[in-house]
Amino acid sequence: MTPVIAPELIDLHPEPADLRRLVLRGMASRPRQLPAWLLYDAEGSRLFDQICEQPEYSLTRTETALLEALAPELAAALGPGTLVEFGAGNARKAGPLLDALQPAAYVALDISAEHLAAACEQRQHCHPRVPVLGICGDYSAMARLPAHPLLEGQRRVGFYPGRSIGNFTPAEATQLLRQFAQLLGTDGLLLIGIDHPKSRARLEAAYDDAAGVSAAFAKNLLVRLNRDLHSDFDPDRFHYQARWQPEQSRIAMALVSRCDQLVQLAGSSWPFATGEELISEFSVKYTPEAFGALAAVAGWRLVRRWSDPGGDLSLVLLAARDSYQQRLVG
């Protein structure tokens, strides 16, 4: 029996001063919008896992089933290397790939250190032959991955499942894809999940479930601000809403002020009018054609796409420059 070695965790979490700067910038914008990764402290990550189990939110179940069904085919397309997952969360989606791929190492990046540590321990327990490394930080702001033996000497294969690319505007998503190319290297590959547009009723229900978990997830953002930046938000003075915006092909999730109020945050007073929104996150939905065009602008080449039978989402394999063709020829 292969002994299980405790995975290593590198903590690059932003300093409080950086958090304060980002929050103040978001509060000064119109509409007010905070970085989506702020939602994912330990409690937020726990609530997001619950969202994925709600009957209205089918994305996780559909994508997981697709990964399980296609794992051997995906592994053959990806080839050997180190699997680098961006925004790993509970890291369950990596399981089928790790089984089929047996990579040189598995590197998981996420913003919540506590959640990441538990996820890495679980992956290491389930895959004792694959070395596991966790990196806690904002992957969208990383210029390079930290130096570590598990990240040296092997081709890097990126994995970015779920709806995460949708949290960024198309311009931000283009920059993020360019950044992934830099982090993965010139011979890197990226397997990314994209969620497709659907009916308004279906999307708004998925992001505002009947059990109220999505609302609790968004309101936990205010709890975090109260704790980490000593603000005095009253979550009961805000209500949650999720609206489909067809012009931008996105769901806008917001906390809406129930009344005129004044909030103390980071040493300043911030007025909220009745009905004023604080955007907690966006989720942009891409058609395959729209995402292919966006990836091309970012310098990636679409190698292959897989979709579920209902056409709700896709897994897209992208190659940095001509590396994939060179590997096939070689």
- The percent range for strand residues is 25-35%
Integer tally of domains: 2
Helix content: 25-40%
Query: Could you tell me the radius of gyration in angstroms?
Result: 20 Å
Query: How would you name the oligomeric state of the polypeptide chains in this document?
Result: single chain
* Global structural class: alpha/beta
Shape annotation: globular
CATH architecture of the largest domain: 3-Layer(aba) Sandwich
Strand order of the largest sheet: 1-5-4-3-6-7-14-13
Q: How many angstroms does the end-to-end distance come to?
A: 36 Å
Tally the helices: what do you get? 10
Q: Could you name the CATH topology of the largest domain?
A: Rossmann fold
CATH top level label of the largest domain: Alpha Beta
Instruction: Give unreliable regions as ranges.
Output: 324-330
Mean model confidence by pLDDT? 92
Write up what this structure looks like.
- This protein has 330 residues and is of the alpha/beta class.
- The chain has 2 domains: 16-53 and 199-284, no CATH class; 57-198 and 286-329, Rossmann fold, CATH 3.40.50.
- It contains 10 helices and 14 strands.
- The strands form 3 sheets. An 8-stranded mixed β-sheet has the order 1-5-4-3-6-7-14-13, sandwiched between helices. A 4-stranded mixed β-sheet has the order 2-12-9-8.
- Helix 3 packs parallel to helix 4.
- The chain is globular.
- The two termini are 36 Å apart.
- Mean pLDDT is 92; it is low at 324-330.
